[in-house]
Task: inverse folding
């Protein structure tokens, strides 16, 4: 049997220190053929030079350079060039186990699944914590997986740690948006197109927390980007006739959003000035209340505009 080509999408922005670890883990995959499409999103450090060195030494690596547009547009650029039968996404400061591609591909073949979701862990300061809440069941329909994916403590809608059949990404598709939490706005839509989705709790993906990452450099833009991602999801549900049937899952997402953001803003280290935190959360809660209702038009939340109205300086690292 001829082995299928698998495309690996790698968005890159200012990760010179961690990028070699990521690329080494991709090149160590025991599956071939493999293409690694790394998009440097206007990095200001030496990330582009690292990519050039790897591309010169390894024919699997293809490099794209673009002006800084954000994590979502970098993923879109790579997806537009991907030629594999399957595609997976790995953030440039993370790494994967050497059997991730081969094992998930085997599961896809054995189960007839269009998407295979792997287990993952969080790493920081030498500690490794596996995500413990993945469902026990090993198989879903695409719509079941999509609806479950908006539960942030069960089957999170992260773009990574998944192997997708590439045909699920349509050429004329609405792309990953240029906001933080762009995968919440996009992954459920992709999962919904799958006939079957398989799940393995085996840990393959290592999500590495660092101080200057999107999470580590948390600021005002994060708050309103999260609301914007929910708003995109809200419109997608309404436009596809899912507003009523997804209400329990959607309302749970809003409840989780009301808990998660105050913890991040009030209790964890971030870039938001102390005097601005409570007013910011008041605006955020007001926005979540608005998002409880079915959208009446195609207008969507703009996180930058909301941040400016909050009169708080936006100091985030770019997505």
Result:
């Amino acid at each position: 049997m001829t082995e299928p080509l698998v495309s690996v999408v790698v968005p890159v922005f200012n990760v010179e220190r961690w990028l070699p670890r990521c690329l080494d883990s991709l090149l160590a995959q025991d599956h071939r053929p493999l293409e690694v499409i790394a998009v440097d999103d206007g990095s200001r450090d030496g990330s582009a030079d690292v990519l050039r060195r790897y591309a010169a030494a390894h024919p699997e690596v293809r490099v794209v350079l673009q002006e800084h547009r954000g994590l979502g547009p970098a993923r879109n650029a790579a997806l537009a060039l991907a030629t594999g039968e399957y595609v997976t996404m790995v953030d440039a400061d993370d790494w994967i186990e050497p059997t991730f591609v081969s094992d998930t591909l085997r599961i896809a073949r054995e189960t007839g699944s269009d998407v295979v979701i792997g287990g993952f862990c969080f790493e920081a300061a030498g500690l490794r914590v596996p995500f413990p809440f993945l469902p026990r069941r090993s198989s879903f329909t695409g719509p079941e997986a999509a609806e479950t994916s908006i539960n942030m403590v069960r089957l999170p809608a992260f773009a990574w740690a998944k192997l997708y059949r590439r045909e699920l990404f349509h050429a004329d598709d609405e792309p990953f948006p240029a906001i933080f939490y762009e995968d919440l706005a996009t992954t459920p839509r992709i999962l919904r197109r799958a006939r079957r989705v398989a799940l393995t709790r085996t840990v393959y993906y290592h999500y590495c927390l660092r101080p200057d990452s999107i999470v580590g450099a948390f600021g005002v833009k994060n708050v309103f980007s999260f609301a914007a991602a929910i708003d995109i999801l809200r419109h997608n549900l309404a436009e596809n006739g899912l507003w009523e049937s997804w209400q329990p899952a959607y309302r749970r997402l809003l409840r989780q959003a009301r808990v998660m953001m105050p913890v991040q803003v009030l209790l964890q280290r971030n870039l938001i000035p102390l005097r601005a935190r409570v007013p910011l959360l008041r605006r955020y809660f007001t926005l979540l209340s608005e998002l409880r209702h079915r959208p009446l038009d195609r207008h969507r939340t703009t996180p930058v505009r909301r941040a400016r109205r909050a009169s708080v300086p936006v100091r985030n690292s770019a997505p």
Q: What stands out?
A: The CA atoms of residues 117 and 162 lie 4 Å apart. The longest strand covers residues 196-208.
